[in-house]
Specification:
The structure holds two protein chains of two kinds.
Chain A: H1 7-33, H2 36-52, H3 71-84, H4 86-106, H5 109-121, E1 126-129, E2 145-149, E3 152-163, E4 170-176, E5 187-193, E6 199-201, E7 215-226, E8 230-231, H6 237-271, E9 275-276, E10 279-280, H7 285-313, H8 319-345, H9 355-363, H10 373-389
Parallel strand pairs in A: 1-4
Antiparallel strand pairs in A: 2-3, 3-7, 4-5, 5-8, 6-7, 9-10
Chain B: H1 7-34, H2 39-47, H3 66-78, H4 83-103, H5 106-118, E1 123-126, E2 142-146, E3 149-160, E4 167-173, E5 183-189, E6 195-197, E7 211-222, E8 226-227, H6 233-244, H7 250-269, E9 271-272, E10 275-276, H8 281-309, H9 316-341, H10 351-361, H11 369-381
Parallel strand pairs in B: 1-4
Antiparallel strand pairs in B: 2-3, 3-7, 4-5, 5-8, 6-7, 9-10
The chains are: A alpha+beta, B alpha+beta.
Chain lengths: 390, 383
C-alpha cells in the first residue's frame, strides 16, 4: 500500500489549484446566473481556458495533443476544477470524457485524427447521447433506431438530458440497429456532426443546479450518417457505453467531491469571520462539529475515489464496483455537506449572492447523474450477493 | 498511489483468516456470553505469533510493519473473532508492549518483550483516570521519588486487560503544576507492593476483554522501571495514537466484512413472501451501504498504517478521521446488519448481535467521536 502522490501528481494538483482559483472560480457565480445564451459563450471560454492548461487532454494520447496522464492525476486535477466550478467540470468532462473516451477506446485512427485534437484544444465540443426520455439507468431500453440505407445509416429518435447539446460541435449517438439482437446487443454508436441534416438540438433545460452547463434534448429526424461514422463495431454500442460510463462514474464522484470540498472551504472561512454573542461561530461546537463532519465526509470520499481510480488504472477485477461505491458515497455525502454549509452560513446561505446556495443546488445532481444512487446500490448489492453465493 | 496488498501480505492474511476460522472462532460466542476472557484463545494467538507481530525476531516477534499488523487484525475480525479478544490483543501488543519496546532500555526490553510477545505475560496501559479521560493532562496519579524507588499513588479506570495483566504501563505525574510536562511512565508488575486491580466491569460489548480499575496505593516501583524519561510520558501516549487508529481499528474493518458476508448469506437463505429477502431492494440497499462503509473505513485505517510505516509525523486529521468514521459509520452499518436479520439479529445466537454491541465501543474507546471532531475542527480553525 502506498498513499503518497508522486512528484508529478503533487505538481499537477498545485497547478490546477492555482489555475482554477485564478481563472475559473471567479467566474463561477456569474456563469451560474448568466442567461442561457451568455452561459453558452462563457462555457466555451472556460473550456478553452481548461484546454490551455491541458485538462482536456489528460487522459488522451500524445499523438492527438494529450498528455496521457494516469487516472489518479486526472482525479486530482478534476477535484480542483469541480471545486472551482462544477458546471465547468461537467461540460469539460462531457466533451473530453464522455465524448472523448469512447473515441479513444473505440475510434479508428482516422476518426481520432479528425476529432480528438480539436476536443483536446477546446476548439471542438463533444457530447454523449445515450439517455432517452424513457431510457435512463435502463440504457438497454433506448428506442432511437438506425437503419442502413446504401452506404449510410439513417437515425431516428430523440435523446434527452444531454450535457453540452446546445454548444456541441459533434455528438455520439447510440441507436438500435437490430431490435431482435437480445439483451445488450443490437445497439450501435454513431458519430454525428452538429451540422448533419436532421440533427436538431432542443432548447436548453432550466435546471436546479449546474446552470452554467447547458443541457438539452437532441432530435434525430431522418438524420443520415455516413458508414465511416460508426464508432467501434456495429452492435457493440451498449458494451461501449457501459465501459465509458465506468469512467463517467468516477468523474461524477469527483465533481461531488469538488462540491463538498468547496462547501467545507467556504463554510470554514465564514465561520472564522462571522461573530455571534461576541464569539466567532467556529467557537461553537454546533458549528465546528459540522465543519469536522464535512471534513470527515470529504476525506473518506476522496480516498474512495482514489481507490476506484487506482483500481481502474491497474485493472482490478472489482474496479466497476469500487467506482459505484465511490460515486454513491461521495454524491450522497456531498449533499449532506452542502446542507451543512448552508446551515453554517445561516440566512446568508439562502441568498444567491453566496456560493453555498449554488453548491447546494449543484450537489443534488450527484445523486442522479451517471446512474442514480438507487442504481448504484442495486449494482453494489448484486456484487455483494454474488460473492456471498459463491 | 497503490492500494493493493503485496503477495506476501495476501498469503499472510489468508493464513490468519483460516487459522481464526478453524482454531479459535468457536471459542468466541461462549466467551462473549459469559463475559470471560479465553486463555485458550489467547494461547493460540500467541502460538500463531499474532501477539508480537511488530517486535524484532530476537525479542520473540516477527518484525512486521504496521500495514501487515493491520492485515492480521483485519483478518481476525473478518473471520468473526469477537472484538473483545481483539481489543485485548490490541491493548496488549500495540498499546502496552509497544510502549515498553519503543521507550524502554535494552534491559527493560530483554526483560519484558519476549514474555509479552508470546503472550505468556499480558500487558495493559494505565492512562485514563476517573476524572481524566480525553483530557489526559489533568491526571492526578502521582509519582514521588523516594530513595531508589518511585512511590505511585492514585487510581486508573477503564483499563483493558487490567484484571488479567502481569505488567501495566502506568502514567503518573511527578508534578501536577507542570501539566503534560510532568507526566511520566512506569513499568509496574502486578505483584509490586501497592498494585491492585478492581473487579472487572460489566460492559455492554467487547465482553470477553476484561476491564477494571487499577489502584496504586503507595505502590513501590524500582527506579529501573521508570520507562523513558521523566516528563516524557505524554509524548509516549501520543505515539500510541497511531496504533490506536490503525491496528486497533483494523479489527472493526474486518468486523464490517464479516457482518456484510453474514447479512448477505442470511438474505439469500431467508425467504419471505415466496422469495429470498435478498430480492427486496430495501435489503439490498442495506448491504450496499455496509459495503461502502467497509471500503471507506478500510481506506482510512490503512492510511494511518501507511503514515506510520513511512515514519511521517503524526497527522491528526488522518488519525481522527479514521477513528470517527469507524466509530460512527461503523455503528450505523452494524445496526443495518442486525436489521437484515430481523428478529434473529436481536438474538444472541447470531453473531451480528454482539457485533453491534462491540461496534459501539469504537465511538468511545481511545477517544470519543466528539473528541475526534474537536481535534479536526481545531485544525480546521488554523487552515
Amino acid at each position: 500500500m502506498n498513499y503518497d502522490l508522486n512528484e508529478e501528481q503533487v505538481m499537477i494538483q498545485e497547478n490546477f489549484q492555482n489555475f482554477c482559483a485564478k481563472e475559473i472560480e471567479p467566474r463561477a457565480q456569474d456563469l451560474d446566473k448568466a442567461s442561457k445564451e451568455d452561459a453558452g459563450i462563457m462555457m466555451k471560454e472556460n473550456i478553452k481556458k481548461l484546454a490551455s492548461i491541458g485538462y482536456l487532454g489528460m487522459l488522451h494520447d500524445e499523438a492527438y495533443g494529450g498528455s496521457n496522464n494516469d487516472l489518479v492525476s486526472h482525479v486530482l486535477a478534476s477535484e480542483e476544477v469541480a471545486k472551482a466550478c462544477a458546471s465547468s467540470f461537467l461540460s469539460a468532462g462531457a466533451s473530453a470524457g464522455l465524448f472523448g473516451m469512447p473515441m479513444k477506446l473505440f475510434g479508428t485512427e482516422e476518426q481520432k485524427q479528425k476529432y480528438l485534437p480539436g476536443i483536446i484544444k477546446g476548439d471542438l465540443i463533444g457530447c454523449f447521447g445515450l439517455t432517452e426520455p424513457e431510457a435512463g439507468s435502463d440504457a438497454a431500453a433506448v428506442k432511437t433506431t438506425a437503419v442502413k440505407k446504401g452506404d449510410k445509416w439513417v437515425l431516428n429518435g430523440s435523446k434527452t438530458f444531454i450535457t453540452n447539446a446546445t454548444i456541441c460541435d459533434v455528438a455520439i449517438i447510440f441507436a438500435y440497429n437490430d431490435k431482435d439482437a437480445g439483451p445488450g446487443g443490437g445497439v450501435t454508436c454513431f458519430i454525428v456532426d452538429r451540422d448533419t441534416p436532421g440533427f436538431v438540438v432542443g432548447k436548453p433545460f432550466d435546471k436546479m443546479g449546474f446552470r452554467g452547463s447547458p443541457t438539452a434534448e437532441i432530435f434525430l429526424e431522418d438524420c443520415e450518417v455516413p458508414e465511416s461514422n460508426v464508432l467501434g463495431e456495429v452492435g457493440k454500442g451498449f458494451i461501449q457505453a457501459m465501459q465509458t460510463l465506468e469512467y463517467g462514474r468516477i468523474g461524477m464522484a469527483t465533481v461531488s467531491l469538488g462540491i463538498a470540498s468547496a462547501c467545507l472551504s467556504y463554510a470554514n472561512a465564514y465561520s472564522k469571520e462571522r461573530k455571534t454573542f461576541g464569539k466567532f461561530i467556529n467557537r461553537y461546537q454546533e458549528i465546528s462539529f459540522k465543519l469536522a463532519d464535512m471534513f470527515i465526509m470529504t476525506d473518506a470520499a476522496r480516498l474512495l475515489i482514489l481507490q476506484a481510480a487506482w483500481a481502474k488504472e491497474s485493472g482490478q477485477a472489482d474496479s466497476a464496483i469500487l467506482a459505484s461505491c465511490a460515486k454513491l458515497f461521495t454524491s450522497e455525502h456531498a449533499v449532506k455537506c452542502a446542507n451543512m454549509a448552508v446551515q453554517v452560513f445561516g440566512g446568508y446561505g439562502y441568498i444567491s449572492e453566496y456560493p453555498v446556495e449554488r453548491l447546494y443546488r449543484d450537489a443534488k445532481l450527484g445523486d442522479i447523474g451517471e446512474g442514480t444512487s438507487e442504481i448504484q446500490r442495486v449494482l453494489i448489492a448484486k456484487d455483494v450477493l454474488n460473492n456471498a453465493a459463491s | 498511489m497503490e492500494f493493493g496488498l503485496t503477495e506476501e501480505q495476501i498469503m499472510f492474511r489468508d493464513t490468519v483468516y483460516r487459522f481464526a476460522k478453524n482454531e479459535i472462532v468457536d471459542l468466541c460466542e461462549e466467551a462473549d456470553l459469559k463475559s470471560e476472557f479465553s486463555f485458550e484463545l489467547w494461547k493460540k494467538l500467541g502460538e500463531m505469533g499474532l501477539l508480537g507481530l511488530p517486535f524484532p525476531e530476537e525479542l520473540g516477534g516477527s518484525g512486521a510493519d504496521v500495514t501487515t499488523c493491520c492485515v492480521a487484525a483485519e483478518a481476525l475480525g473478518h473471520a468473526g473473532i469477537d472484538q473483545g479478544h481483539l481489543l485485548a490483543l490490541g491493548a496488549h501488543t500495540y498499546l502496552g508492549t509497544d510502549t515498553i519496546y519503543k521507550n524502554g532500555t535494552d534491559e527493560q526490553r530483554k526483560k519484558y518483550i519476549p514474555k509479552l510477545a508470546t503472550g505468556e505475560w499480558i500487558c495493559c496501559m494505565g492512562l485514563t483516570e476517573p476524572g481524566s479521560g480525553s483530557d489526559a493532562a489533568s491526571m492526578s496519579t502521582t509519582a514521588v521519588k523516594k530513595g531508589d524507588k518511585y512511590i505511585l499513588n492514585g487510581s486508573k479506570t477503564f483499563i483493558t486487560n487490567a484484571p488479567i495483566c502481569n505488567v501495566c504501563v502506568v502514567f503518573a505525574t511527578v508534578d501536577k503544576k507542570l501539566g503534560n510536562a510532568g507526566i511520566s511512565a512506569f513499568i509496574v508488575e502486578k505483584d509490586f507492593p501497592g498494585f491492585s486491580t478492581g473487579e472487572p466491569f460489566h460492559k455492554m460489548g467487547v465482553k470477553a476483554s476484561t476491564t477494571s480499575e487499577v489502584f496504586l496505593d503507595n505502590c513501590e516501583v524500582p527506579e529501573e522501571n521508570l520507562l523513558g524519561e521523566i516528563g516524557h510520558g505524554f509524548a509516549y501516549t501520543h505515539e500510541t495514537l497511531s496504533w490506536d487508529r490503525s491496528a486497533l481499528l483494523a479489527p472493526f474493518v474486518g468486523g464490517l466484512k464479516f457482518m456484510l458476508e453474514e447479512a448477505a448469506g442470511y438474505a439469500l437463505e431467508r425467504e419471505q413472501f415466496g422469495k429470498p429477502i435478498a430480492k427486496f431492494q430495501a435489503i439490498q440497499h442495506k448491504l450496499a451501504d455496509i459495503k461502502v462503509t467497509m471500503e471507506a473505513a478500510k481506506m482510512l485505517v490503512y492510511r494511518v498504517a501507511h503514515d506510520k510505516d513511512t515514519e511521517k509525523p503524526l497527522n491528526h486529521m488522518h488519525l481522527s478521521t479514521a477513528k470517527a468514521f469507524v466509530g460512527d459509520w461503523g455503528l450505523q452499518a452494524a445496526s443495518e446488519a442486525i436489521q437484515v436479520f430481523g428478529g434473529y439479529g436481536y438474538i444472541h445466537d447470531y453473531p451480528v448481535e454482539r457485533m453491534l454491541r462491540d461496534a459501539k465501543l469504537a465511538q468511545i474507546g481511545g477517544g470519543t467521536s466528539e473528541i475526534q471532531r474537536f481535534i479536526i475542527s481545531r485544525i480546521l480553525g488554523f487552515m
